């Protein structure tokens, strides 16, 4: 279902016109590829292996806590991909038991609890699915986050990534959620293994957090992924769209990127369609993305995002408890 | 007084009756039905069987078969919104999509409640169809698309198994295929999109264009994985349309693209790319993958057109026969 908006048809029509001008005029006077300011903190939850809090002006606030548990492999000798993919569990919850206010329910394939694509029974679907998808797809080239979770023979870490959206009535932007998860992952530390690697006894760990091992080595690549929403109205492409812009947009994509080297170049690890309002335009207008527009949308993401991702990574590292 | 309220305590038959299905016996002996050829060229999609009008109790329906994948789609509506609905008024038709694997559709049994991947498929399907339907023509009504997957190519088999060698601490996977489950879902999604379009056409719901699904995968040689020759190996990339779940020998999948494509409008209504694509040459890698998926979608569009034509043909035939009888009556 298209996201419900508090905007009236004339308002939407006005927005549509102003956003399809050259150059476009966004309601908050940002340039087309400008992000909204955000407040980001990490490593502040004492009971978690990694945590973050992201606060975006309109898009709301969310907290992510990552906890790791030692778990025995389900099968001793064979571990199938399916079994391995259960090592990471992502859940997205909306504080206050779901939102029904105007502007909610906008998301990539539905956000959990906030009324998804079918507007019901979205227990853990939606956001959790694509967040995990990007995480697993990131760095398929001989490297996977799942390898980092292996402790020793027969044992692994089970990672629980719990996202709590604190502002239920706001627009849960994919950027908000993925930024928070990205930062939390980047600040996740696991206790150092003290028992030998190749014994399938219960593993033992050092209780000294000063020598704990980061989940993502700060200097290696790829880094955790980040998902950027991008929408198009006419020939104009907008990064980090606001609620009103999503409601007006004709088409939308969520492009998941991961930093692949120190120069700041990114790899595309996933692209997904995003639900947009398709309001304000005329009947019979654009119904999908043509190839030219697709190129423009993804190129904008790739060109503009690397700096943002890099800066975010630096901020995280500055704030980490061992920095 | 209005008609009696329907008896909800018993399982009532449809008021207008149903037709028993008629099965055609296969005239070919089983030996002549060959299994899918392993040497299918990479730019050729599998043969598709698509028929409409299988379920007689719904507005529109279709059945699709692509090698092991079998699914049926029912379209209910457009029908009025229920009075108890949270949205009593809608200027445009409300579309709902539901994808469900039958419990026996894969080796791992699926429950009767939809799990997260099924819900995700449902929202992907929604996304691909919603733009194509002329929803503004059906205000205050809802259209339901229900997909039941009866059989699918499976995710979990021995190729999918990572072998842990004795006495070795870390995984030494002989084969890593991270996007495997997603690729399996992608093939299913493409089938869902194509079949759902046919069912919507069968239901006589007005659309801007039919949406057909396409899948493509890019593979590289398995052994050039780590670092070396990473830049120059673009010519070694193999693009496969409508990929089988098990990748060919010695090849490693990099990324998969699933899309819903409206061929007459040249627009992509739904895009789902999964896997790693470099951006050294801008978006060239992604574009090539998308182009392959579009080509696959174009191929399946041919089948879709034929299936949609059935309904048109049926209406035309019926109209002709009624006008003929009218004529005879008038002359007689």
TrEMBL record, chain A:
GO terms for biological process, alphabetical: exonucleolytic trimming to generate mature 3'-end of 5.8S rRNA from tricistronic rRNA transcript (SSU-rRNA, 5.8S rRNA, LSU-rRNA); nuclear mRNA surveillance; nuclear polyadenylation-dependent rRNA catabolic process; rRNA catabolic process; TRAMP-dependent tRNA surveillance pathway; U1 snRNA 3'-end processing; U4 snRNA 3'-end processing; U5 snRNA 3'-end processing
Main location: cytoplasm
Keywords in alphabetical order: Cytoplasm, Exosome
Keyword Cytoplasm carried by entry: yes
One GO MF term: mRNA 3'-UTR AU-rich region binding
Location(s), subcellular: Cytoplasm; Nucleus, Nucleolus
GO cellular component assignments: cytoplasmic exosome (RNase complex); nuclear exosome (RNase complex); nucleolus
SUPFAM superfamilies linked: Ribosomal protein S5 domain 2-like
Annotated protein name in UniProt: Ribosomal RNA-processing protein 42
Taxonomic path: Eukaryota, Fungi, Dikarya, Ascomycota, Pezizomycotina
From TrEMBL, chain B:
Protein name (record): 3'-5'-exoribonuclease
Family designation: Belongs to the RNase PH family.
UniProt entry keywords in alphabetical sequence: Cytoplasm, Exosome, Nucleus, RNA-binding, rRNA processing
Coiled coil: none
Biased composition annotated in UniProt, kind: Polar residues: 12-34
Pfam families: RNase_PH
GO molecular function: RNA binding
CDD domains, per the entry: RNase_PH_MTR3
The UniProt record lists the keyword tRNA processing: no
């Amino acid at each position: 279902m298209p996201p419900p908006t508090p905007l009236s048809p004339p308002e939407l029509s006005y927005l549509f016109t102003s956003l399809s001008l050259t150059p476009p005029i966004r309601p908050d006077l940002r340039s087309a590829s400008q992000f909204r300011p955000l407040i980001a903190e990490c490593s502040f939850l004492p009971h978690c292996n990694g945590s973050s809090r992201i606060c975006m002006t309109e898009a709301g606030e969310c907290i992510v806590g990552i906890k790791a548990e030692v778990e025995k492999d389900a099968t001793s000798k064979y571990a199938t991909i399916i079994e391995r993919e259960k090592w990471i569990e992502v859940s997205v919850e909306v504080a206050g038991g779901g939102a029904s206010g105007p502007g909610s329910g906008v998301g990539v394939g539905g956000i959990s609890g906030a009324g998804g694509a079918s507007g019901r029974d979205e227990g853990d679907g939606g956001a959790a699915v694509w967040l995990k998808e990007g995480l697993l797809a990131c760095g398929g080239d001989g490297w996977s986050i799942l390898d980092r979770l292996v402790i020793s023979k027969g044992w692994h870490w089970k990672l629980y990534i719990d996202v709590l959206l604190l502002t239920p009535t706001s627009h849960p932007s994919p950027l908000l959620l993925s930024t928070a998860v990205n930062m939390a992952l980047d600040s996740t530390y696991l206790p150092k293994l003290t028992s030998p690697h190749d014994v399938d006894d219960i593993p033992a760990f050092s209780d000294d957090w000063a020598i704990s091992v980061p989940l993502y080595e700060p200097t290696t690549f790829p880094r955790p992924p980040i998902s950027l929403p991008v929408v198009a109205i006419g020939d104009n492409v907008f990064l980090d769209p606001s609620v009103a812009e999503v409601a007006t947009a004709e088409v939308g994509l969520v492009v998941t990127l991961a930093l692949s080297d120190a120069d700041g170049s990114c790899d595309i690890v996933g692209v997904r369609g995003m639900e947009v309002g398709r309001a304000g335009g005329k009947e019979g207008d654009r119904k999908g993305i043509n190839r030219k527009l697709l190129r423009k949308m993804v190129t904008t993401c790739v060109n503009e995002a690397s700096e943002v991702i890099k800066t975010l990574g630096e901020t995280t590292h500055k704030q980490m408890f061992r920095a | 007084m209005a008609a009696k309220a329907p008896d909800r305590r018993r399982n009532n038959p449809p008021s207008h009756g149903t037709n028993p299905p008629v099965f055609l016996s296969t005239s070919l002996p089983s030996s002549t039905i060959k299994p899918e050829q392993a040497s299918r060229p990479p730019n050729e999609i599998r043969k598709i069987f698509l028929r409409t009008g299988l379920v007689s109790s719904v507005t529109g329906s279709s059945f699709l078969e692509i090698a092991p994948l079998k699914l049926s789609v029912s379209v209910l509506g457009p029908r009025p919104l229920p009075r108890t609905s949270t949205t009593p008024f809608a200027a445009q038709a409300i579309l709902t999509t539901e994808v469900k694997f039958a419990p026996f559709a894969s080796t791992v049994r699926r429950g009767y409640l939809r799990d997260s991947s099924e819900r995700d498929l449902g929202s992907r399907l929604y996304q691909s169809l919603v733009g194509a339907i002329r929803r503004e023509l059906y205000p205050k009504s809802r259209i339901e698309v229900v997909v039941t997957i009866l059989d699918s190519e499976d995710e979990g088999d021995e190729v999918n198994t990572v072998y842990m060698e004795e006495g070795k601490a870390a995984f030494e996977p002989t084969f890593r295929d991270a996007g495997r489950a997603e690729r399996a879902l992608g093939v299913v999604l493409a089938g869902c999109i194509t079949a759902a379009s046919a069912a919507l056409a069968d239901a006589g719901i007005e659309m801007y264009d039919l949406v057909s699904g396409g899948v493509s995968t890019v593979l590289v040689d398995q052994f050039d994985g780590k670092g070396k020759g990473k830049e120059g190996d673009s010519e070694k990339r193999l693009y496969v349309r409508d990929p089988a779940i098990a990748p060919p020998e010695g090849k490693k999948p990099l990324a998969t693209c699933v899309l819903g494509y409206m061929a007459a409008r040249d627009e992509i209504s739904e895009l789902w790319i999964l896997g790693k694509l470099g951006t050294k040459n801008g978006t060239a890698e992604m574009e090539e993958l998308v182009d392959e998926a579009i080509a696959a979608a174009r191929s399946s569009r041919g089948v879709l057109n034929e299936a949609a034509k059935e309904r048109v043909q049926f209406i035309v035939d019926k109209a002709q026969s009624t006008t003929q009888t009218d004529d005879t009556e008038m002359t007689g």
